[in-house]
Amino acid sequence: MNFDLQKYQAAILELPNFEQLKQIPLQIWETIPSTNQKLWELIEQGEKLPLASLALEQTAGRGQWGRQWLSTQGGLYLSLGIACNLNLKDSFLLTLIIGWGIVTTLRNYNLPILLKWPNDLILMSKKLGGIKLETRSHKDRITQVVIGVGINWTNSVPDIGINLQSYCQNQLAITSLEQLTAITISGIISGYQHYLTVDREQLLKDYFAIFANLGQQVTLNGGTGIITGVTTTGELRVRIKSPGATTEVCLSPGQISLGYEEKT
Fold first, then answer.
1. How buried is 201 (Cβ within 10 angstroms: 0-12 exposed, 13-18 middle, 19+ buried)?
2. Is 261 contained in some domain?
3. How far is Cα 41 from Cα 47, in angstroms, rounded to an integer?
4. Peptide bond preceding 118 in cis form (omega within 30 of 0)
5. CA nearest to 82, candidates 133, 32, 121
6. 242: how many CB neighbours lie within 10 A of its CB?
7. Other CB atoms closer than 10 Å to residue 173's CB: what's the count?
8. pLDDT tens by residue, 181-191
9. Is residue 24 assigned to a domain?
């Protein structure tokens, strides 16, 4: 499988933030362990940011919390590195809002994608992709961030997954991996700029507009809870009812798994 750089550059020109996108070099790799890992290596070698790295196949791709990410040919495996000066406490909120940027941009192409907390892109209740954000910091400030994104394009997926080809077949408004790459980078930049310019309350309001889990029932410590939202730092808010009392807890990733149902 090949990646046509000229086709990618042409796709950039169709996007509203094309002037910014033209300033981001894209390095393309046939097969590497991880695009995030490759970007950190390039940064350590002195490469300037912003910089994007794309692999046609990953041999050691990882999602959040070290979970394996299957990265066979046909999928989008992309990382974008950005130099920044952000509050270290906001790294998780930044992940959510960059997810918002990607999803909002893809929805412009008639794709009813939603965000499943904390970092999954879902389509028709199945996993379309995911986001992994890694940072480097100095004192209490984030100085560099690498955003890794995987999206199922034409690659095979498990029962809990879906790819864009199977969803739309010949009616898809996105017609190539090169165009999907341009749109995804545009979405990352859109989400990042939104994070920089909008207050937290508005960020959460925008996030809730494409939040898949609002009102979902969950089991926690043997009890039943309802997801009511997300805090300004990105934690999941769950209301738990017990005889004679109602309490609300805030959960970080790792404290609860919202999962997917596999077909049998």
1. exposed
2. no
3. 9
4. yes
5. 133
6. 10
7. 12
8. 999 999 999 99
9. yes
